[in-house]
Amino acid sequence: MAKLFRAVIMGPPGSGKGTISERIAQRFGLTRLSSGDFIRENIAANTDAGVLAKTYIERGLLVPDHVMTRLLLPRLEEMTRHSWLMDGFPRTLAQAEALNSTCDLDLVISLNIPYETLKERLSDRWIHPASGRVYNMGFNPPHVQGRDDISGEPLIQQDDDKPEALVARLRHYKDVAKPIIDLYKSKGILHTFSGTETDRIWPYINSLLSTKIPSTSQTDTQCIPMP
Ligand SMILES: Nc1ccn([C@@H]2O[C@H](COP(=O)(O)OP(=O)(O)OP(=O)(O)O)[C@@H](O)[C@H]2O)c(=O)n1
Ligand SMILES: Nc1nc2c(ncn2[C@@H]2O[C@H](COP(=O)(O)OP(=O)(O)O)[C@@H](O)[C@H]2O)c(=O)[nH]1
Q1: CB distance 137 to ligand 2 below 6 Å
Q2: Structural element, H or E, at residue 128
Q3: DSSP state, 148?
Q4: Model-level pTM?
Q5: Does pLDDT of 199 surpass 90?
Q6: What is the rounded (10 degree) CA torsion for 218, 72, 190, 103?
Q7: Ligand positioned closest to the Cα atom of 131
Q8: Among residues 26, 173, 28, 70, which one has the least CA distance to residue 113?
């Protein structure tokens, strides 16, 4: 059986994690796992972890590590026979360590995008809150202005995406991401991509993954269930 491939994509808010992971999932047939989507699904389904997570998100806080790991690790254990790409997790060193003890990552993509670019993109980002689908009025506009392509429901702009919130979010990202990036660098699996346009970064990611994904197709690996 082909060896499985597990990757994580990291980057500050607006760096293109969602956009690029969609492309990777389509091009390479990996399952895209988004921690934001998991949280939204759990909130919609009223699970215990979802109810708990909602109390933090409503206050604009990050969901604590133990809640995030409780949400995500069982989902990863269901994925033992799939290749996947994770977006939005780990977001702290503790989450990275929990992931580490669950499975071996093959590769980490880190996006390094200038502040001005992030600010412009986020000021133009519109989302469909129920699904997490993301639009940008210049880059990937919806078919009908202000409406989600699939459901036709209204799109919103998140308060968090306003320029005044961005500085604090970015500072927070830099602080918490640094030890995670150092950890992945020390494991030799970190690949950093810098630039201002997704379409210019994409060919580099595409060619890196084209070399990594087929060359790993030898044996099977599994995520080990957490005790
Ligand atoms: N590991 C994670 C992932 C998500 N969240 C919470 O879930 C929300 C939605 O996550 P996501 O869809 O990843 O969106 P953003 O945080 O807005 O991420 P970005 O701007 O980077 O796309 C976050 O704001 C945060 O409150 C969290 O606490 N911890
Ligand atoms: N103008 C422009 N917008 C982009 C580009 N790449 C992504 N976007 C948009 O920028 C916003 C942030 O991208 P997203 O994938 O949500 O980033 P994430 O927060 O890291 O997941 C979204 O509205 C995207 O549609 C780009 O190259 N140029």
Answers
A1: no
A2: strand 125-128
A3: -
A4: 0.89
A5: yes
A6: -40
A7: 1
A8: 173
Distance CA 173, CA 186 (A): 20
Q: What ipTM did this prediction achieve?
A: 0.93
Gyration radius (Cα) of the chain, Å: 17
CA distances for 220 relative to 100, 131, 138, angstroms:
18, 33, 42
Q: Could you please state the CATH topology (level 3) that the domain comprising 6-213 is classified under.
A: Rossmann fold (3.40.50)
Percent of the chain topping pLDDT 70: 93
Tokens found for residue 203 = 């060919």
Domain chopping of the chain, boundaries: 6-213
Task: Tell the residue number behind the tokens 């989507």, with chain if given.
Answer: 37
Which residue type occupies 213?
I
- Tell how many helices (H) and how many strands (E) occur in the chain: 8, 7
Instruction: Determine the distance separating the centroid of ligand 1 and the alpha carbon of 109, expressed in angstroms.
Output: 17
Whether the Cβ atoms of residue 144 and residue 35 lie closer than 8 Å to each other: no
Ligand 1 pocket (Cβ < 6 Å) reads: 13, 18, 35-36, 39, 57, 62-63, 68, 88-89, 91, 132, 160
